[in-house]
Design goal:
The protein contains 11 helices and 12 strands. It is α/β, with parallel strands linked by helices. One of its GO terms (molecular function) is lyase activity.
């Protein structure tokens, strides 16, 4: 089924409510990636030609999150980029996070336990208070497990007091307006709500974080503007800005991202949020449950996933519950299908 939403067209089937697992790309992104693959298949691929889509997507991610493009690094996954941040945490640091936080956010920090780094879990509604007394706080703006959203105000106060604030926006960027230029690190994988091919991720960074970060995966692509003229021999030559942390890009992924991210950045994201949250809350209301104000909802009903699957709804099992995710290409017919299956 082809759906039109916010000026783009999508091949999204009825009942697809699994964007929190894998997003469905707009047709324009699919055409761009297919054209790039055709070039590759016929000997037409030219490596320098992929610099433009990398920079286009980088600038759009910056616009979506409130950074300058020069403050954004690219990578293949959120956890790989957060590994650079975790390495910059001092020995013995106290890192606080939310209970049941997604492991791609916490594992890079927990892996430094051998040097005394302690990662402590607290309830989400207590995170702000805990952050004020910690060296680092790391949390997803929207929780993967069930769509709960973090209160950013106390985290901003903690940042002003010296706490290093690290936010994962993988489940938020693309449907929720974000203005996070005050945050030390903002990371996102692109293959969910940002509707990119899997293999592209971005990390926005603050100047104070970059003073601590080492380019552990230093490579030829991180050489910035001189990458094509100085790819052999020493000494180490890296970009002076956040591009020094770039991983060598997966080309086709950034070709797709160069279509979807600028489009998303051009939208009225308040309207996108209203659309997505409206569908999610309408589903909860139809089931006699209170609104949550998130595009992701989680149902605590043992038979839900089986009944939804039988009705042609694509959902996900997470933490013993059934997770539904409503993006901009979903509509009221998806709500009706869920309610018909579960009533």
């Amino acid at each position: 089924m082809v759906r039109e939403a916010f000026g783009e067209r999508f091949d999204v089937p009825h009942g697809y409510l699994a964007t929190a697992s894998v997003g469905v790309p707009p047709q324009g992104a699919v055409r761009a990636v297919q054209a790039a693959l055709d070039d590759w298949a016929t000997g037409g691929a030219r490596p320098p030609a992929y610099d433009e889509p990398v920079e286009t997507a980088r600038a759009a991610f910056a616009a979506l999150t409130g950074y300058d493009a020069a403050d954004v690094a690219i990578g293949g996954s959120a956890s790989a980029l957060l590994a650079l941040v975790a390495d910059a945490v001092p020995d013995g640091a106290r890192v606080v996070t939310a209970v049941d936080e997604f492991t791609s956010a916490t594992f890079p920090f927990a892996a430094h336990g051998d040097r005394g780094v302690r990662v402590l879990e607290v309830p989400l509604d207590e995170l702000g208070a805990a952050a004020a007394g910690a060296e680092v706080v790391v949390v997803s703006v929207v929780q993967s497990l069930g769509g709960a959203q973090v209160d950013l105000a106390p985290l901003r106060a903690a940042a002003a007091g010296g706490t290093l604030v690290v936010l994962d926006v993988t489940q938020a960027a693309g449907w929720r307006p974000l203005d996070l230029g005050w945050v030390d690190a903002v990371v996102a994988g692109g293959y969910k709500w940002l509707l990119c091919p899997r293999g592209a991720a971005w990390l926005g960074t603050s100047a104070r974080l970059r003073e601590r970060m080492r380019p552990l995966a230093a490579n030829w692509y991180a050489g910035g503007d001189e990458r094509w003229s100085a790819i052999y021999g020493l000494p180490l030559r890296l970009s002076p800005d956040a591009r020094r942390y770039d991983a060598s890009p997966a080309w086709w992924c950034h070709v797709g991202a160069a279509v979807t991210l600028p489009w998303l950045a051009s939208l009225d994201l308040a309207a996108v949020r209203e659309h997505c949250v409206g569908l999610a809350d309408a589903t909860l209301a139809g089931l006699g449950l209170p609104p949550q104000g998130s595009a992701i909802i989680s149902l605590d009903r043992p038979d839900a996933l089986e009944r939804l699957t039988d009705a042609g709804v694509v959902a996900a099992a997470r933490g013993g519950r059934t997770r539904l995710a409503f993006h901009l290409y979903n509509d009221a017919s998806d709500v009706d299908r869920v309610l018909s299956a579960l009533r």
